[in-house]
Write a structure and sequence with these properties.
By secondary structure, the chain is α/β, with parallel strands linked by helices. The chain has 19 helices and 19 strands.
Length: 491
């Protein structure tokens, strides 16, 4: 029996993991090797990622895999969140800390950029959901602010590209992560020159775009020495975390939608080609690159960031566990008030409970009186937001949606999964929870010949991991609240 081992580095906006994937007898098993926190660093009112600390944690993960678990992986791969970039100078050194997408310098960037290229024209040109933190608007802000970093920048790498570069010294822009930038032609492996011209930016700072499953190069000798690693390749996996997660959905056919649930909820369908129209632009869906030429037609929904920030704000006086927060919400009054998870004031408010309180005042709703009421409203509002997104997908796509797959960390939240089934009146299949790491591992396996196709990947995931099914309950009640929710988010 042949056993093959691959090490995935999966970085989210709040934590990172090194996950060992072992394929044996056509089944995949996982082992968490290393887990670490990831937080934005605030300096002089701006927010950054400490990429050098993150790289140190990745090296620690590789070292632990070899030293503590006695396993030399065949390869490594990195996935992260989208849009953020690192600038490099002519010596190949990263210039300062990369800005975090929640940094406020882009607060007015979209509206300013629309004076150069109108909103509708920009969307039809790229097919990407218009969000203030997209890489296009970040680079516009660099130019607008006459950043001295740009004066010495010679190369640009997206976050997973930069971490892979630190491992192997090879600079490439992987397709799925590059597709989040709003700089690419929809469905094509090509940047749009007109957008670079619009902000007076040199397109040559970008790198060759490579597809998921490309071997970049071997780990550098000094890192081999530091970690005890053999000469192993670094693979450009589907390096946007959502792209990796969707690759691991344990389903066949096309009659399903997905929700990759974590800090963000990414909800959509897998389409054979981009879907772009004026109506889709109004609905603000995105068309991002997937595996094997597929398009991730989806919408970014704020997600469990709302709950994470409440937990952080309350931590000085109440050190709640996640299960405790779920239980508190069960005892709260149903549907006392609802919020729009995507309201701009929730992007990075500093005090999330206060921002939720202010939203209730603005929309003339009862004010929350307990922490449990706030938590319940977050869960109910997220589920109802999924319903609006489902209705929008159905209005522009002919793909029949008969079930929902919730993958990622949010699949552990059984209450939210049940609310989602109730709100959408569809069965919800929850799991696997480590979907992103699984997709990362399986794309390494594909690159090294352990599996051949996306269908084979999904079959192996189906055979290897259990899912839990949630059937709709009280759909009539949820439909009544959905009508109220639509009036709240329309305000």
């Amino acid at each position: 029996m042949t056993t093959r081992n691959f090490l995935a580095f999966d970085l989210g906006a709040s934590s990172g993991r090194a996950i060992l994937g072992t394929i044996s007898d056509q089944k995949l098993s996982l082992k968490e090797i290393h887990r670490f926190e990831n937080q934005m660093v605030e300096i002089n009112g701006s927010f950054f990622w400490n990429i050098f600390s993150l790289f140190g944690e990745l090296k620690t993960g590789l070292k632990k895999c070899i030293r503590d678990f006695g396993i030399q992986p065949e390869s490594v791969g990195v996935d992260t969140w989208g849009v953020d970039i690192a600038l490099l100078d002519r010596n190949g050194m990263i210039v300062g800390l990369p800005y975090a997408y929640r940094d406020p310098r882009t607060d007015t960037a979209m509206e300013e950029f629309y004076q150069i290229i109108p909103k509708k024209e920009l969307y039809l040109m790229t097919g990407i959901q218009l969000m203030q933190f997209n890489t296009l608007f970040q680079l516009y802000a660099y130019k607008r602010d006459q950043s001295p970093q740009l004066e010495i920048a010679k190369d640009i790498l997206f976050m997973p590209d930069a971490l892979s570069y630190l491992f192997c010294g090879v600079m490439k822009n992987e397709f799925s992560i590059a597709s989040t930038s709003q700089f690419m032609k929809p469905g094509k492996q090509e940047f749009e020159q007109r957008l670079f011209d619009a902000i007076g930016f040199d397109i040559n700072l970008m790198q060759e775009i490579v597809l998921p499953g490309t071997v970049l190069g071997n780990i550098k000798p000094e890192i081999q020495k530091e970690t005890g690693s053999a000469v192993i390749p670094v693979v450009a996996v589907a390096s946007h975390d959502t792209a990796s997660a969707i690759a691991s959905v344990p389903s066949n056919g096309c009659n399903w939608a997905y929700i990759s649930s974590g800090t963000w909820s990414l909800m959509g369908i897998e389409s054979p080609q981009p879907l772009i129209s004026e109506e889709i632009q109004r609905l603000n869906f995105t068309n991002e690159g997937g595996v094997e030429g597929t398009t991730r037609f989806l919408k970014n929904i704020m997600g469990l960031w709302l709950l994470q920030e409440c937990k952080r704000t309350w931590s000085d006086s109440h050190n709640y566990t996640w299960p405790e927060m779920v239980e508190m919400s069960k005892n709260a009054q149903p549907f006392k008030f609802l919020i729009d998870p995507d309201a701009r004031e929730f992007l990075n408010p500093g005090d999330m409970p206060a921002a939720i309180m202010a939203f209730c005042r603005k929309t003339n709703q009862p004010l929350p009186e307990t922490h449990g009421e706030i938590i319940r409203a977050i869960f109910e509002s997220l589920a109802l937001k999924y319903r609006t997104t489902l209705d929008s997908i159905r209005s522009v796509s002919t793909i029949p949606i008969e079930k929902i797959h919730i993958i990622g960390g949010g699949a552990n939240n059984e209450l939210l999964c049940q609310y989602a089934a109730n709100a959408m009146n569809l069965p919800v299949y929850a799991g696997p929870t480590e979907a992103t790491a699984i997709g990362n591992i399986m794309m390494q396996a594909k690159a090294l010949g352990a599996v051949e196709t996306l269908e084979a990947i999904r079959q192996m995931v189906f055979d290897s991991f259990d899912t839990k099914v949630f059937m709709p309950q009280n759909p009539d009640l949820w439909n009544i609240e959905y009508q109220r929710f639509k009036t709240i988010i329309a305000d």
